[in-house]
Write a structure and sequence with these properties.
2 copies of one chain form a homodimer.
Chain A (H helix, E strand, L loop, with lengths): L2 H5 L1 H6 L5 H14 L12 H8 L3 H13 L3 E4 L3 E4 L6 E4 L6 H7 L4 E11 L3 H7 L7 E10 L2 E11 L13 H7 L6 E10 L2 H7 L6 E10 L5 E10 L3 E8 L8
Parallel strand pairs in A: 3-10
Antiparallel strand pairs in A: 1-2, 4-5, 5-6, 6-9, 7-8, 8-9
Chain A binds a DNA duplex (19 and 19 nucleotides) through α5.
Keywords (chains A, B): DNA-binding, Transcription, Transcription regulation
Pfam family, one (chains A, B): UTRA
InterPro entries (chains A, B): Bact_HTH_transcr_reg, Chorismate_lyase_/UTRA_dom_sf, Tscrpt_reg_HTH_GntR, UTRA, WH-like_DNA-bd_sf, WH_DNA-bd_sf
Chain lengths: 256, 256
DNA sequence: AAGTGGTCTAGACCACCAT
DNA sequence: TGGTGGTCTAGACCACTTT
């Protein structure tokens, strides 16, 4: 076992300072980043690691926990712990309003969407405010898990006034295509981008560990008339998605 | 102790399903979000929590770990565990190129910057590529911890060709002000925004737990001539900063 | 000095996966 | 069935803060 020398109790003594689990974490991290452990390769079982490094299994788990959170390792229950294959990043330009489907197609990715929810519901207070719904009206909701090349990339939860999308079941691939058909394609959108730690349930859908960083994007789309068409919350995998924005210096503030 | 009833062993039995630490986490989370625990209020000591809920201290720590990672609780070594005060979010528009200082001043925040590093150095390979430096030339670096109303908000690490910033020690508040003075104020910039889990060292500077979500922003700024002026990596607290982008639908792709 | 969080241990049992 | 990760325990000692 090659790792025996890297992880020997003596090696740990000489590793960086701090608690044992940090030293162990650091040694493992260097082994991974340094290529001593190849992508997809299995780590020794936790019990073996504990014996090799002469620490308790709890300490091994704490070190591995960190590396899993950082995305360097992947645990598979009952199977083992493996060095992850890095996900290549995808970029989206912010200067142009496009749908996820159009966006990915342009890059040559095959996209797929798994339907999580689709139908007509009673609006939440937030939906009423964002979409400008009057009391008693209903709202169409479409929640989808977006995949690019069969890797989950984002969860998208869209709310649309039934006025513009009376038949949500017609939406199969692109929401914007269907809005085109109903004559309600938005021409302007405002996005709010922030970072968050992905909660357990969403993390499971995206295939990432709970607590991993995600890009949360709230988008409100407008018709030329100024009316709000849709309100979408998306959650992108932080390790797989970049947003690119071009900005210019000038006195031209945002359009009305 | 009010918590005794909320956290009693029986209450835990009836809480959501899953492992003990998840139930405990959920009960605590509901108590916090439901306002049963006020902001700034101290949680009972871990040992007490363990006894109240009739679980081991390790299990209590695992539940609390999660809530600390999510930012609902703050641990203070030797002092206690407290319900965090939420940080109000700040927004930055992406449609206009502004400096941090200008940006915050417009919102009425008082800003302060703690200098982390400032001087002239040998460039890294990345800096040479990004700034288009020729071999043997040097690079000016300014790293600062940005604060708004005395709360750390971002770490900013800027690299500038010495051609445009021969005397980095002149930069006190705004980098752009100094570039204005040397006649090298950029007119265009491209930003790449992504989410990441903040590493220990940076987390400490920002006053957030390691692993919390951060917005990583890489910015390359250009002169009107097209030359690159600066290359900046910023790391914003995910819980305190939003980026807002306005987009329009159209055939107008990004400018050359 | 007393109380708090931070780390660590040895051992146990369960749930899942491969064979 | 045997090996793997997932959870849990009781108890110990250390480091830091408060009094």
């Amino acid at each position: 076992m090659i790792l025996a020398s890297i992880l020997s109790a003596e090696a740990l003594q000489n590793a960086g300072r701090g608690p044992l689990y940090m030293k162990l974490r650091q040694v493992l991290e260097e082994a991974i980043r340094g290529g001593k452990l190849e992508q997809g390769e299995a780590l020794p079982p936790e019990r073996d690691l504990a014996e090799i490094a002469d620490v308790s299994r709890v300490t091994v788990r704490k070190a591995v926990d960190d590396l899993v959170r950082d995305g360097l390792l992947v645990r598979r229950h009952g199977s083992g712990t493996f060095v992850s294959k890095p996900v290549s990043k995808v970029q989206q330009s912010l200067s142009r309003l496009t749908s996820f489907t159009e966006d990915m197609a342009r890059r040559g990715f095959t996209t797929r969407a798994e339907l999580l929810e689709r139908g007509i519901f009673h609006p939440t207070t937030e939906e009423m405010v964002m979409l400008g719904l009057s009391a008693g009206t209903q709202v169409a909701r479409i929640s989808r898990l977006r995949m690019a090349n069969d890797t989950p990339l984002a969860i998208e939860r869209a709310s649309i006034s039934t006025e513009f999308l009376p038949e949500p079941e017609n939406v199969t691939t692109s929401l914007y295509e269907e809005l085109d058909r109903t004559g309600a394609r938005p021409v302007r959108a405002i996005q709010r981008i922030s970072a968050c730690n992905v909660k357990e349930a969403d993390a499971e859908l995206l295939g990432i560990p709970a607590g991993a960083a995600g890009l949360s994007i709230e988008r409100v789309s407008y018709l030329a008339s100024g009316r709000v068409v849709e309100f979408t919350r998306s959650l992108y995998r932080g390790d797989a998605y970049d947003f690119v924005a071009e900005m210019t210096l000038g006195e031209n503030d945002a359009a009305p």
